[in-house]
């Protein structure tokens, strides 16, 4: 298509240098009026052509935007989503409409000036044809966008109809439930009104009360659903379904109100039956009052027993350091509190009987002896006192239960802190020494001890299992054929065997109860002061950390302390425990801390990953396959497990943590040759600083 800019066209025309007969508004003195007008017409046609091209481009962009929105329309299935897409389509239509309006003006402009411009523009037909084609294309684009909008409007209407249908069906389902409950209530009310005995009448009234409560609940649900549907009440397609649901709800509400009225009549009938029964047998009224008082007193005893049980359970709960054990006592306290509450309800029920008996006899005092009347009134007072005592007992039992619940919550929170600070094996071991450091305060105090050299740091090396060492586990007794330790002659449970202190953190290795081969001799705890754990992940930057790691292999008594290094890169951490041969400077890696993730948990920046105890392989079937000898190197296994820890210091200057690897090996009875498989655990702790 041929186009020229307005400036180029004017330059061409003004270069002709034709002499005019008169000025006629031309700036060229040699140019005639008709020539000047032809030049202006040519310029107008050229501008119209440029406008046509510009507006066609704008319309085509609007079409592309509309087509993009239209693609989204295919997967949209809610009114809100479709409405959002319609807004985009209408925005595209607005842009296309602007282009069309401008195009129409350009077209009229070209039509007005075509004849005059013919003498200047030899290819005027190309211009006019190009403008006409652009105008036709823009109109076609308008039709395409309008078609998309029409389809979107249809889809919007359909989706609203579907949405309203779903909502109203849910409302009608609740109305159906409400009507069923009303029918049950009406049946129960009819049964109560037909009853000749107060017990049956009371039972039926209770059924009706329950059914009407269910009715109210169902109607409230239906009304909530209707409120959702009302958001679409302006849509013609929705009005019918909404009105249907509203009519059903109104009808059910009316039936509920009417049934509630007849319930009151049934309750009056019950009261009349009771009065009639009491009046017909004065002695029965007296007996009922005395029986009610005695029953109320008995319920007080039950409630007070429940208080004792709840209080004992709550007090006992505080003696446990495991949430599972404490939960049992909390459950006991809960049951006791419920028993006390039930006893209170029972006492309140019999008080109503005693009070009614007293009222009836008072109303019929002329027919009742003064002694009988006094007896019944006293029984009523006794029942009233019993209810007050039961109320107090129920409150005390509930308070004890709440106290036990709070103790459990506190313990669970403490356990979560300990679980971060030690290995899973030690945390789960029933008698583990780590439970002595359940509170954050106890761990902070331990850290202070090792920081002030009350407990010195362990040097790199081995804390051996011999009599001269603090790691000694006691002599071995093999009278039964199994190795049994006499811990009374070794290091006592709870003794700190190794430690590492840093400015904000550290760790300790502690002696466990250690008797049989299945027992793990030592436990490890990572320590902080509870204040300076790193909270801001942004301060954990790429860095290298160096320190020590202490650990026991296979659950044994000795503890090895090695050098350890960690590397932090982005959100990852990895490290190794190693030793350097002083003579050859060769490095031996004992533990690989594989790449783990750095995350924020409970407000503390920590990390977790997998660990390989590469320097301490084991033979799982040492006796059944190798008769007690070590397996060939290629058959040996490397213990694997996990490590965890956290950073300490305001700038993450330190890190501290624990690791563990659990695996099975065989032991053999030296007398019977019996072979059994035991669980071995290699575990330890590490601390390092930048």
Automatic annotation (TrEMBL):
Look up and give the organism this protein is from: Conservatibacter flavescens
**Signal peptide range:** 1-20
Question: What's the protein here called?
Answer: Transferrin-binding protein B C-lobe/N-lobe beta barrel domain-containing protein
User: Per UniProt, which keywords does this protein have?
Assistant: Coiled coil, Signal
Report the domain of life of the source organism.
Answer: Bacteria
Residue ranges annotated as coiled coil are 175-269, 337-414
């Amino acid at each position: 298509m041929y186009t020229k800019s307005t400036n180029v066209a004017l330059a061409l025309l003004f270069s002709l240098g034709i002499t005019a007969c008169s000025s006629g508004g031309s700036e060229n003195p040699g140019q005639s009026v008709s020539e000047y007008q032809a030049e202006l017409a040519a310029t107008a046609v050229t501008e119209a052509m440029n406008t046509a091209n510009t507006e066609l481009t704008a319309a085509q962009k609007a079409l592309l935007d509309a087509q993009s929105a239209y693609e989204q329309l295919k997967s949209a299935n809610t009114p809100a989503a479709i409405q959002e897409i319609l807004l985009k389509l209408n925005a595209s239509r607005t842009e296309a409409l602007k282009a069309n309006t401008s195009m129409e003006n350009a077209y009229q402009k070209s039509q007005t000036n075509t004849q005059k411009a013919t003498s200047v523009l030899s290819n005027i037909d190309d211009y006019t044809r190009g403008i006409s084609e652009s105008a036709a294309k823009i109109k076609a684009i308008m039709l395409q966008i309008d078609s998309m909008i029409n389809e979107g409007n249809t889809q919007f209407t359909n989706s609203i109809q579907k949405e309203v249908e779903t909502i109203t069906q849910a409302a009608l389902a609740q109305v159906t439930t409400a009507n069923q409950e009303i029918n049950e209530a009406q049946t129960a009310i009819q049964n109560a009104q037909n009853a000749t005995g107060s017990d049956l009448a009371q039972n039926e009234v209770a059924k009706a009360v329950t059914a009407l409560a269910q009715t109210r609940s169902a109607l409230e649900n239906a009304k909530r659903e209707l409120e959702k549907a009302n958001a679409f009440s302006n849509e013609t397609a929705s009005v019918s379904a909404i009105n249907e649901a509203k009519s059903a709800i109104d009808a059910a509400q009316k039936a509920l109100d009417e049934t509630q009225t007849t319930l009151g009549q049934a309750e009056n009938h019950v009261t009349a039956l009771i009065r009639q029964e009491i009046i017909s047998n004065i002695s029965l009224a007296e007996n009922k009052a005395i029986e009610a008082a005695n029953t109320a007193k008995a319920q007080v005893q039950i409630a007070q027993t429940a208080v004792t049980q709840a209080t004992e359970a709550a007090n006992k709960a505080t003696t446990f350091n495991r949430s599972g054990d404490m939960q049992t006592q909390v459950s006991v306290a809960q049951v006791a509190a419920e028993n006390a509450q039930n006893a209170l309800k029972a006492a309140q029920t019999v008080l109503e009987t005693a009070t009614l008996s007293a009222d009836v006899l008072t109303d019929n005092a002329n027919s009742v002896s003064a002694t009988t009347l006094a007896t019944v009134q006293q029984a009523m007072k006794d029942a009233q006192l019993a209810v007050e005592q039961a109320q107090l007992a129920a409150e005390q039992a509930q308070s004890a239960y709440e106290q036990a619940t709070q103790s459990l919550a506190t313990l669970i929170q403490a356990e979560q802190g300990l679980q971060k600070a030690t290995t899973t094996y030690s945390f789960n071991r029933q008698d583990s020494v780590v439970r002595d450091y359940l509170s954050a305060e106890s761990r902070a105090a331990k850290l202070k001890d090792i920081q002030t050299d009350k407990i010195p740091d362990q040097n790199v090396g081995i804390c051996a299992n011999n009599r001269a060492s603090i790691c000694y586990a006691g002599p071995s007794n093999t009278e039964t054929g199994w190795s049994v330790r006499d811990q009374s002659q070794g290091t006592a449970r709870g003794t700190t065997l190794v430690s590492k202190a840093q400015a904000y953190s550290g760790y300790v290795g502690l002696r466990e109860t250690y008797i049989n081969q299945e027992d793990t001799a030592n436990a490890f705890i990572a320590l902080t002061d509870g204040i300076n754990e790193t909270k801001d992940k942004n301060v954990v930057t790429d860095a290298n950390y160096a320190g020590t790691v202490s650990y026991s292999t296979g659950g044994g008594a000795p503890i090895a302390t090695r050098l350890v290094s960690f590397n932090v890169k982005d959100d990852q951490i990895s490290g190794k425990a190693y030793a350097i041969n002083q003579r050859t400077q060769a490095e031996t890696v004992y533990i690989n801390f594989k790449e783990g993730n750095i995350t924020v948990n409970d407000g503390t920046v920590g990390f977790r990953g997998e660990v390989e105890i590469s320097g301490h392989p084991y033979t799982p079937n040492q006796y059944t396959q190798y008769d007690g000898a070590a397996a060939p190197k290629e058959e040996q296994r490397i213990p694997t497990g996990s490590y965890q820890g956290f950073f300490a210091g305001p700038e993450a200057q330190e890190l501290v943590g624990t690791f563990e690897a659990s695996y099975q090996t065989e032991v053999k009875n030296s007398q019977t040759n019996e072979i059994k498989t035991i669980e071995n655990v290699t575990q330890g702790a590490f601390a390092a600083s930048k």
